[in-house]
Amino acid sequence: MDSMLGSMISFAATGEIGAFRIGMAGEEADRLLGGGTGLAEGPVGFKDGSLEVWVDRDLTVCLLGYDAVDVEGRFARAGGQEPIEAPSREALIDGLEQRGCAWRQYDALTFDDQLAIRTEAGVSVVFTRRAPGTSGWVTASLYRSPDRP
Q: CA separation (Å) from 11 to 4, 8, 22, 41, 95?
């Protein structure tokens, strides 16, 4: 399995990206990213490749996610690795099912040419249509923020 797709599936299933988790100190997130990101001072966001980390006024991580790195919708691991094509909806769903991760359609983010699911880990995964004139859906983004009552 492609390492970027594997990271996306792991995040969708666990709600964590490696050592990054919601509620961790911004200072710790900054340290994990090599320092100088501004995450220790907050509120601010930082993006490295497709990885996105946001810190709130309380200086804790309030949003984690993966998003495309270019207008073609490709994804890249942190550290400037070569981007990959956006994984298909089928590839991401198959990976979740192989891990035994439950998910449901997420109507709040489903409309027109966009579908969304929400995993049991609280990760929202958004899919968009492939390029005009083609069929199927591709992954557009994956995000998690603190659970709301």
A: 11, 5, 12, 25, 11
| Residue whose structure tokens are 């956006």 | 86
E strands present in 27-102: 44-48, 51-55, 61-67
Q: How confident is the model at residue 2 (pLDDT cuts 50, 70, 90)?
A: low
Confidence of residue 1 (pLDDT cuts 50, 70, 90): very low
pTM: 0.90
* CB distance 62 to 146 below 8 Å: yes
Which two structure tokens, joined as six digits, stand for 80? 């400037």
At 119, list the tokens.
Answer: 């995993």
Output the pLDDT for position 70. Answer: 82
Integer Cα distance of 75 and 81 in angstroms: 10
Q: What is the DSSP string of 44-60?
A: EEEEETTEEEEE-TTSB
Rounded to whole angstroms, how far apart are CA atoms 137 and 31?
36
CA distances from 143 to 44, 53, 80, 123 (A): 16, 10, 20, 6
